[in-house]
Amino acid sequence: MEPTWEIVTPAGPAEVTVDEPPGGEEPAFLLVLTHGSNGGLDAPDLVAVRTRALGLGGAVAGVLQPFRVAGRRAPGAAAAQDEAWLMVVAALRERFAGVPLIQCGRSNGARVVCRTALKAGARGVIALAFPLSPPWNPARSRAGELRGAGVEVVVVAGDRDPFGVPDPADATCVHIMPGERHDLARTPSAVGEVAAAWLGRWSGQS
């Protein structure tokens, strides 16, 4: 597989960047991660999680979703976004057959990885800055997407996030980062540590 490749979906092409363990070793797990609606794979929290996952012997696939490849900020309908995501993950699973799959996303991407976890065959989800409620409509909760994931869900949220903080009952673990807002950019290394503590089970380093 090329380090960067294109996967065509009904929503348009997605761009995937893959990093594998050195020396052709079988990865301990496959972490597929993605961005929010107005960002990319260079978000500090995603970079921190990616770095720690590689250090644990995992393979990491960063997915730039079709709407961002096309230069848009709005992801469009959830059903179409999820369909495209599942096509990308299916292609990755063909390459990494038999390797435990973990999905990770931030903000809008966190919603996608929760909604698709069961259909993708994921063993768990890392949800960074899950947007619990729109700031302009705090009564509208998306907690059902966390509860409905059907797999273990680890949430990392800032205590100053205007999109709210999930209740501990909404996920397997909810880690609150003091002083952080929605971007989780104040101490991204701490976000990476939370992810690594959970991912360690797949590499025998927990």
Overall mean pLDDT stands at 94
Question: Which percent range fits the helix content?
Answer: 25-40%
Alpha carbon gyration radius:
16 Å
- The topology string of helices and strands comes to EEEHEHHEHEHEEH
Shape, please?
globular
Low-confidence stretches: none
Instruction: Name the CATH superfamily assignment.
Output: Alpha/Beta hydrolase fold, catalytic domain
The description of the largest β-sheet is: 8 strands, mixed
Query: What is the name of the CATH class?
Result: Alpha Beta
How do the helices and strands line up, and which of them pair or pack?
Blueprint: E1 4-9, E2 12-19, E3 30-34, H1 44-55, E4 59-64, H2 66-69, H3 78-95, E5 101-106, H4 108-120, E6 124-128, H5 143-147, E7 152-158, E8 173-177, H6 188-203
Parallel strand pairs: 3-4, 3-5, 5-6, 6-7, 7-8
Antiparallel strand pairs: 1-2, 2-4
Helix pairs in contact: 1-6, 3-4
Overview of the molecule:
This protein has an eight-stranded mixed sheet, sandwiched between helices. The protein is built from six helices and eight strands, in the order E-E-E-H-E-H-H-E-H-E-H-E-E-H. The protein is globular. It has a single domain (4-203), classed as Rossmann fold (3-Layer(aba) Sandwich), CATH 3.40.50. The model has no long low-confidence stretch (mean pLDDT 94). The protein is of the alpha/beta class and 206 residues long. Helix 3 (78-95) crosses helix 4 (108-120). The chain has helices at 44-55, 66-69, 78-95, 108-120, 143-147, 188-203; strands at residues 4-9, 12-19, 30-34, 59-64, 101-106, 124-128, 152-158, 173-177. The two termini are 29 Å apart.
